[in-house]
Amino acid sequence: MFVDVLLELKNKQTDQTYTYKVPTSLLKKIEIGKRVKVPFQHRELEGFILNVKKKVEGDFTIREILAVLDEESILNEELIKLGQFLKNTYLCSLSTAYATMLPKALKASLKSKKINKKYEKFLILNMPYDDALNQAKTKSQKEIIDCIEASSKLTKKEAQQISLSSVSTLLKKNIIREEQEEVYRLEDKVYVSDEKKILNTEQKNAYDAILKKLNTFHKFLLYGITGSGKTEVYMQVIEEVIKQGKTALVVVPEISLTPQFVYTFRQRFSNSVAVLHSHLSNGERYDEWRKIKRGEVKIVIGVRSAAFAPLSHLGIIIVDEEHAESYKQENTPRYNAIDVLEYRAELNQIPIVLGSATPTLERMAKSTKNLYTRLELKNRINHQALPICTIVDMKEEAKKGNLILSDALKNEIEGALSRQEQVILLLNRRGFSTTITCSNCGFTYKCPHCDITLTYHKTKNNLRCHYCGYTTYKKDFCPNCKESLNFYGYGTEKLEQLILKEFPDTKVLRMDADTTRVKNSYETMIEKFKNQEYDILLGTQMISKGLDFPKVSVVGIINADASLNIADFRSNERTFSLLSQAAGRAGRKDTVGTVVIQTYMPNNFILKCVKEQNYEKFYQYEMNLRKKLKYPPFYYLVGIKVTGMDYDLCSKEAVKVVQYLKKNVDENTIILGPTTANVFKVNNIYRFQILIKYRFDTKLMQTLKELDSLFILNHKIHLEIDINPTSV
User: For 283, 310, 312, 598, which has the most beta carbons within 10 A of its beta carbon?
Assistant: First the structure.
């Protein structure tokens, strides 16, 4: 018997497999999708078996595989197809695709740290219960026997907490015995059961529509305003799917959403839920992946990478907050998880439901052409009113000395605190100050490796680059002329300091990338705020969507202009989505919601749409703009970055790329560039960008593949091709 093995090689020119002979001793272990260790040139490598055959053609020496590494197949038929989909759609190698799909412990690479299974020692009775009790001599011995009888087994640690000597004595007398069992690292908690709620008319219509398509491939767009009960629709549909003996995959955009989502689902479905996200340790992720593969859970909840969860008998896929940019991976392979999930739904002939209060323009446009079935939830559950939004002109506030907090927002915060309600403040920028400069000589702290100013973090008194991570300590005076320094701009640290000064008796919780580095910090913070241990939650965009806090009555948008001023065709859409989602956190239960939007552009059309909470008005405006400028959904995009450490060489190669494209693509395809990227230099790498706009171009994909292959062996210049980028 022979096998074709896909190896992980640095050279990604081809996805060539290598044929190896199977020694007789390993014949019974051979299966497509398993990892094997093989000799390759003068070294040993790991790879996946992608084909099994009885004979090979040709007269040449074939080496034998050295070992089969897995007891069961890692890549099933569906995952193998998903790898092919990534390769064909996003121009990556198969080995890169499979490496992306799998947890670290299961990658085909000798570099990957092997993860061991976790075992726990349990004690069980070695004789009938009555006989064991009769032989027990002490109270603690009898207590241990009773505990084992109550649950059929007891961990050795728990028994030793009762009495170390009693455990030793019972073992010596063979009254109990010790056994070792594999346990999962993520502890299963006991959740208070939550009964399903009665659906209102809109929810019931959406539920019925999805159920009718349960066993067919169908794409739904669930367009529901914030607080309209989308999650309850998801859960009741999933309940029906599970009754049919199938499983469900639920994908959310942010790790911060996962704890609340998992808690809500486990209240309904107990511990039949597995989680997958990047804050799990390698061991935890390994355990969860195997738990899913073994069919021990019915529901998987996770972020982007959960799109590759090895679920069998998949019955439905749900994508919450489908508008989120985090579904797009920014490094190779640059895949969009929603595209992968739609392909997976088609493979399994099941429905996929994309939910959002602010759907992407592309998907809303497709729903108007019936490429998605649009289901609408236009009202909040229990007829709760949407929050009242107010726009505050910060130019007028600045005249009064209010540079960060307006009088209107201060009054709303004070009112909420006096009513023992909670407040959320959104400022999508972390750190203390964004720029530190000297007014005397003009010196500004900049990253020596990137084309960007350093952000000051006061808690650690350091200046940090948010692109490459470079860090240096701030000096008290200008390093050039020794004059005092000026601080400009502000982030969440400075806002926290100001809030504590304005409201000294208030408990403030800051949630951003700096405060959530510690494991399980998301869960802890969200739980504490929900339990009203804090009065004010302030943070970046991670607090803006999907979270449900019953006591939040006021939401403040501190700097609404930040995302509007970014040079990107999606800046309007991002701003509308971010602010609308943040506003939706207010008044979700019994409290009346109030939203204060602070801006230096009070007449901006997008902000007015947010104030009116009018998605349809925004949609029509933005679609008209996109059509004129030839952007999605009217045109498809491909982004190309030419990067390298040599500025001149990088510039010349970027020009060559454009010339090659113009010669080989359709004449109606638009090629823009090369230009320097928005952040021109990152980590000493210069970046030039090219943008391709097209509607129909049969030559384009082949041309991109040829371009990619031309740069594979070029160690000085790197080509990054991004199909349908979310930003340019």
Answer: 598
pLDDT at 600: 95
The tokens for 626 are: 């996109």
Residues 6+ apart with CB under 8 A from 562: 428, 429
Average pLDDT of span 130-150: 92
Residue of 358, 373, 350 lying closest to 322 (CA atoms): 358
Side chain identity at 587, as an amino acid letter?
G
How many Å separate Cα 46 from the centre of its chain?
Answer: 29
User: Which tens digit of pLDDT belongs to each residue from 332-373?
Assistant: 899 999 999 999 999 999 999 999 999 999 999 999 999 999
CATH superfamily to which 384-432+490-626 belongs: P-loop containing nucleotide triphosphate hydrolases (3.40.50.300)
| CA–CA dist 253, 545 (Å, integer) | 10
Enumerate residues 6+ apart whose C-beta is below 8 A from 498: 404, 405
Q: Which of 550, 138, 197, 604 is nearest to 384 (CA)?
A: 550
Report the first-to-last Cα separation within the chain, whole angstroms. Answer: 50
Strands 422-426 and 536-539: parallel
Say whether pLDDT at 12 is over 70.
no
Angle at 373 between CA 372 and CA 374, to 5 degrees: 105
Which position has the token pair 């706009």?
693
Residue with tokens 């007028």: 396
Tell me the average pLDDT across 287-315: 94
Give the relative orientation of helices 605-612 and 615-629 as an angle to the nearest 10 degrees: 150
pLDDT tops 60 at residue 13: no
Please name the residue that has the structure tokens 């999930």.
Answer: 341
In this predicted model, what pLDDT tens digit does every residue of 442-484 receive, in sequence order? 899 999 999 889 999 988 889 999 999 999 988 888 989 989 8
With a CB cutoff of 8 Å and minimum separation 6, the contacts of 638 are 691, 692, 694, 700, 704, 721, 722, 723, 724, 725
CA 431 to chain centre: 22
Q: Of 258 and 336, which is predicted with more confidence?
A: 336
CATH number of 201-381: 3.40.50.300
Give residue for tokens 């640059």. 334
**What secondary structure letter does DSSP report for 57?**
-
CA 727/CA 402 separation, integer angstroms: 33
Q: Please state the length of the chain.
A: 728
- Position 111 scores a pLDDT of 64
The CATH classification number of 2-106 equals 3.40.1440.60
Q: Tell me the residue ranges of DSSP E strands in 113-269.
A: 118-125, 154-155, 176-183, 218-224, 247-251
- Positive or negative: CA dihedral 249, 252, 254, 255: negative
Alpha helices in 614-711 (DSSP H): 615-629, 647-664, 700-711
Q: Please tell me which residue, 105 or 387, carries the higher pLDDT value.
A: 387
CA angle 276, 277, 281 (to 5 degrees): 95
pTM: 0.90
pLDDT cut 70: percent of the chain above it: 98
Structural domain boundaries in the chain: 2-106, 118-183, 201-381, 384-432+490-626, 636-723
pLDDT tens digits, one per residue of 435-448 = 899 989 989 999 99
Encoding tokens for residue 402? 């209010």
What number is the average pLDDT over the span 689-708? Answer: 95
Domains 201-381 and 384-432+490-626 share a fold: yes
Q: Which fold has domain 636-723?
A: Alpha-Beta Plaits (3.30.70)
Asked if residue 413 lies in contact with residue 594, where contact means CB atoms within 8 angstroms, the answer is no
Burial class (CB in 10 A: 0-12, 13-18, 19+), 726: buried
